[in-house]
From TrEMBL:
One of its GO terms (cellular component) is plasma membrane. It comes from Candidatus Pristimantibacillus lignocellulolyticus. The chain crosses the membrane at residues 12-33, 40-60, 66-89, 96-118, 155-172, 200-220, 226-244, 251-270, 282-300. This is ABC transporter permease. PANTHER family: GUANOSINE ABC TRANSPORTER PERMEASE PROTEIN NUPQ (PTHR43370:SF1), SUGAR ABC TRANSPORTER INTEGRAL MEMBRANE PROTEIN-RELATED (PTHR43370). Keywords: Cell membrane, Membrane, Transmembrane, Transmembrane helix. CDD domains: TM_PBP1_transp_TpRbsC_like. One of its GO terms (molecular function) is transmembrane transporter activity. The keyword Cell wall biogenesis/degradation does not apply. It is a multi-pass membrane protein.
Amino acid sequence: MLSNIWDQTANLTLIVILLRTLPPILLGALGGLMTDRAGVINIGIEGLMLVSAFVSIAVGSATGNWFLGVAGGTMASMLVSYGMAFFSLKMKVDIIIAGFVVNIFGAGITVVLMSIFYNSHGSYMPSVPVKIPNVVIPFLENIPVIGKLLSGHNLMVWISFLAVVFCFFLLYRTPYGAHLRATGEEPSAARSLGINVNRIQYSAIIWSGFFSGLAGAYLSMGMTSMFVRDMTAGTGFLALAVVIFGNRHPFGILAGSSVFALASALTMIIETTPGNVIPTQFIKMVPYVVTIVALVIYAIRKNRKATLAS
């Protein structure tokens, strides 16, 4: 098994699988980052991703256009996140409870709609698959190593990298980002400076819906060409752990997401290794064990810094 992992590392297959599994974790974590920095924790990312995954493939298969599918799924996610913001900020429902409701809503409404429109309770695969395209770079494609590293990846892989740069610019190079961070650090102080805290938090939750929507669209129209009940499989919760592990910074989140994507890639390789005797249930634990280890390391580092500071 170790020789198989080494072979797939040497021929860059491990990196290709890592890049394939990275976007949903990274985009979901960026969604969590936007709300976290605004002082409103969105634990409903899992539900938002599910809603987007279903609407994306439904719209995509109905129109035959992947872009409309992604746009439809992302808009649906943003609409649900707006509802979440309304109930938490306007109606004063606890944001954690609102997040739980969104997760339950996402898991339930997708199954109901799948049953109504496609007469299925477990999965839906369009007769004519509609996928987010891969990006092949002609002049790099045939270059050894570089071609495999940079060409042939799904468009959403590149969008997720651009999203990291966009979030960094938005948070640290714009007045809006300064207002958002000030709101998250000390709302009362931000309010005294004339910042509309309520509007900033509204926008942060909707940004969270936008990035979660892209993540969900990739699950159903990038990684696969189908929707499967509860197909997020905890990715939204992993994304929340990445926000903490990444030290609440876009580039830290990129590094943290890569660690979790690597764990997922290793899981896939071990599962497909010929003669593997390790139980599947045990292998599937790997990403979640990595989550626990990462959070423990983060807690130790944080306590050590606090000790040194005191």
